[in-house]
Task: structure prediction
Amino acid sequence: MNLFVYCTREGVLWLIHGQDHILTQIKASLSANRLAHAYLFCGPSGVGKMCFAMDLAKAVNCVSDMEQPCGLCEQCVRIASKNHSDVRVLGVQNSDNDSRSRTVIGIDDVKEVLHKTNLKPFEGKCTVIVFDGAENLSTEASNALLKTLEEPAPQVLIILLTNNDANILDTIRSRCRSYTFNVLPKELITKILIDEYSCNSENSELIARLSRGSIGWAISAATNPDVLKQRDADLNHLQQTMEAGLVEKFDYVSELASEFGRNRDGVKDVLYLWRTWCRDLIILNMSSEEHVINSDKITMLKDQESNMNFRDISSFVGVVDRTIYALDHNVNPRLALENMILNMPKVR
Result:
């Protein structure tokens, strides 16, 4: 999913949705000119951490007289289009063209980007460094960042984004002002898709159900047909894998493990989809269709539910959860995925 998928609407002051508890405090800090030198944004993928980081980068560089980003000046527009020399984003994947298989943000990358903190901003008022997936910082990289946080330079703002702040060094957490981002309720996502993206009511409802509270994923699905096409392909893979032999299952695991090095979030999205699918099978076994998330696939779900063991499905949900946890903690992806596939329930 493109990190900036909904961070580029010109003329909108704050693009963040559903995080008023954070926005209120940041606005007050901007008004009083008392921003922290470093922030830690924690929350699930797609709930607005990157979007808000870009909002904040605009706010500290905006040339308007407002105490918030205007969204229209050259500084705001260049930041939104990822063309601002004073705003850098560093993650496991540095760009869409980075095909290297990496699992950590290394010391060399961090040293290179932190070098900018010793220089004056080139075209704006403030240098902004965003660490996307800060839990993936290597030990050496974390220590290099810690030194910068201990001796903050003026006109520098550092923002760390993470899905799990427990994986961030305590010494780093203590030097950042921390905010927790919440998943968005289904009703709010539906309203946003209808009001701001001209999505019809039926599609908005379905996408909101599928989003797991991730507004970023929901907007991607509403504006890019390929997102839901990929979901269909992943569900077909799931169906085929459940019916396949061991060799075919391990071939698919090999594909996922290789992809994980290039696209961690994409592989985890596949696992979340599997978990949601199994959850729907359990719901159908225990109650009615009303609470099924994949409501557009109800016929496929019913056919599969009647041919599977209920206990096996329930057990597999826990296996998928443990696999996601293992991947988040840098366990060897191939071993974690192979263990998962060995516990996959079979279709009778």
User: Anything to note?
Assistant: The chain is about 55% helix and 5% strand. The chain has three domains: 20-180, 185-223, 226-342. Residues 1-6, 8-12, 95-99 have pLDDT under 50 and may be disordered.
